[in-house]
Structures are given as C-alpha cells and as structure tokens.
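Much of our argument rests on the idea that a fold can be written as discrete symbols. Part of our work consisted of pairing the sequence of a single chain with a tokenised description of its backbone. We regard such an encoding as a compact summary of how the chain folds. The amino acid sequence and the backbone structure tokens for this protein are reproduced below.
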Amino acid sequence: MELAVYASHAKDYYAIVEVLKKHHFKFLSLNPGAPLPKGIKALVVSSKDLDKIECPPSVKLIKVDDETLPITPAKVKLALDGKDLFSELVIGIDPGETYGLAVLGDLDLIDCRVFRDLGALKEYVDLLLKARLATKVLLRVGNGSPRHRDKVLSTLSSTLKGVEVEVVDESLAFNPPPLLLKGTPKDAVSAVKIALKRGVKLRFNK
C-alpha cells in the first residue's frame, strides 16, 4: 500500500474516503498515534489534523480541506507517480445542456465530472488552475454546440490567462480505449474524447 489517510473527525474522514474510492485509489486508514507504515508514498491529511501526525520528508503530505477536496485525486496521482508536476494537464469540456468535463494529466484520466451549472464548472476549473499542478495547461472545448461553446469560453475568460485554448471538432474526436473510460459518467465520455483530440488554437487572453 502506497497511500494512507488520516482525519480525526468522522465528517472529514468520510469525505476524503468517498473521493478516493470514487477514483479507485487503494489506501490505508491510519489510527491516532500509529506509526506510518513502510512503503507509503503519500499521506492525505485533513487540514485540521496537521499538528497530530508526523510525516517524514520521503512521504508526500497532501493537505485537504473543504475547498481543495475536489482536486485531491490529481494531487494523489502526482504523489504516487513520484512527480512534483504534470508535464501537461489537459481539461476537456463537452458543452451542452449539461457540461461534461475531463481532466488528463500526462494522458492519464485523473477526473471526470458533469456540471449542470456554468458557475460550478468555473469554480472547479478555477480551483484546478490555482493549484498549479502542471508545467503546461491546455483547455479543449468541443464545438458541437457553438452557443454553449461560446458560453463556456466567455464564463472562463477571466480564468484562462496563460492557458492554451483549443476548439475541437467533436465529429473527429478520438475514441479512447475502453479501459481509459472505465467508471466515467456517460455525460463525461465526450469530454474525455475532446481532451484527447487536437483542435484549432484560439488567440485567447494573450
């Protein structure tokens, strides 16, 4: 086991565990005062418990609170891969009546979500970009619905400084292997395909 979790409050613990299980991470739950087992590469800890546990320099400490919980899977993936940053983080968005989103870090699927509200989508993208998890960030938006595409780009415009933006022809989107799509919500499958397909670059926020 390479991942461990510690949170002294039940609410915090179950929130962290729910996110990790959703993303198919295997982990060890630590008891108060118990030593960190050998082989652990990353330790996820509630921000309320930082003073209650010792973490050696060889173990990546991932601090979690209510705000940063949604991007914990990306941080865990980095830690388990022994990386400080992804070389490239790609965010794929399938705009429509709902907004499918997929996040790929160095071509590995890290997260996928479906949003019904553009404001919630923006909050997640803001959080992801604020964390500075990659050397390069690329946003790819599908053009299946030009009206919804433009709404996405307009809503995210204040967020995308320094981010490369591409518009992808969804009819030519790449069909990824089924293993990559395992556990992906139906409405987010198109977002994965969009994230994997090169599009037309936009001169955006330059």
In short: The mean pLDDT is 90. Helices lie at 10-22, 72-80, 118-130, 146-156, 186-195. The first helix runs from residue 10 to 22.
